[in-house]
What we know:
The chain is of the alpha/beta class. Helix content is 31%, strand content 23%. Helix 3 (70-78) links the parallel strand 3 and strand 4. Helix 3 (70-78) packs parallel to helix 4 and helix 7 (184-204) packs parallel to helix 8. The longest helix is centred in the middle third of the chain and has 21 residues, at 184-204. The chain is elongated. It starts with 14 loop residues before the first strand and ends with a strand.
Amino acid sequence: MSTPNLLDESLPLPAAVIYQSRLDNNLHWMQRFAEHNQVQLCPHGKTTMTPDFFRRQIDAGAWGLTLATVPQVKAAADAGVPRILMANQLVGRANMDIVSDLLAQGLQYYCLVDNPDNIRALNRFFGERGQTLPVLLEVGVPGGRCGCRTRHQIDTVLAALKDAPALQLSGVETYEGVIHGSDPEAAIRAHLQSVRALTLELHQSGQFAVETPILTGAGSAWYDVVMEEFGPVRDQGLLPVLRPGCYLIHDKGIYWEAQSDIMTRLPRDCQPGGNLQSSLEVWAYVQSIPEPGMAILTIGKREVAFDAGLPQPVLHYRPTDSTESGSAQPQPAPNDWEVDHIMDHHSRLRTRPDADLQVGDIIALSTSHPCLTFDKWRQLLVINDHYQLLRRVDTHF
């Protein structure tokens, strides 16, 4: 039985496709970056919610995995991830029940706290079960998301933790990605420096319940800056942990631009060699050519992200070529081909009126913001560089 191949049309389209070689490149590039710069990597799993990829990240050396919600935590724990940082507050009895069961099964789990009411609820719940819940103090920014804004809020949370024996203060967390403005790098560095100073102060005054407290930040756009600001605390008894998520898949949109900025900022002696590669494409057919210069493709908002830029053609392939020549390969899509409109299950591709394009041709499209493409698929195709199917992987959104 022959191996299914995208080029011989033995796999139905549209399909979300991951190149194994590029995935491996990204997996090891970021792990090398973390090890080279002496920080721990706890990648955010919400990007892919794919247990197959979770296990590969852990096997490559990740300290743990970051998740955003309790169902995501359970999916990762069920996949064998031993340490999970939930970069969110744990709220609600049913959610606490799930976490309690996972703790009993041996999961090393952390969540965030920023409010005395939540602290009292957690202490009551886990105290009644005789369990200890490790927590991180979240420090936020005005106008951002969660997290303490002022020193008064921080002191109030710390006071509540002293009266919560079931909770174990294990470090400090922040997220810099909500900081914008005319000079975001300067504002982000100032914020990170204040969080670092706070964490060192709390450590020196004995406020943490663990020997080596965690100091963690970093999404996918500023992980180099977080590394520079948080990395040095390892020499002062803290554990610096980075949480980028989109690096594993990468893209040719907003994270391509962010990574270009990172590589420009990053000193050469901090770079691990090479760079990230866009590993995700969505493959679709040309379904109709209703007007000269216009082709309708078989993907739309239900199949691909469109919040941070529309998908764009990167490869063009005519399936009949493989029958006629036996060796045809996809060719780069012309630079003037552009997707300029997207509907539920259709996208409009603009071309020159005389473009060499037929109904039944295959177009591979790049994406921007991989998270919102992944959550549209229950299964993705992992292929080799010859477009042969290696395996199917399930998502757990």
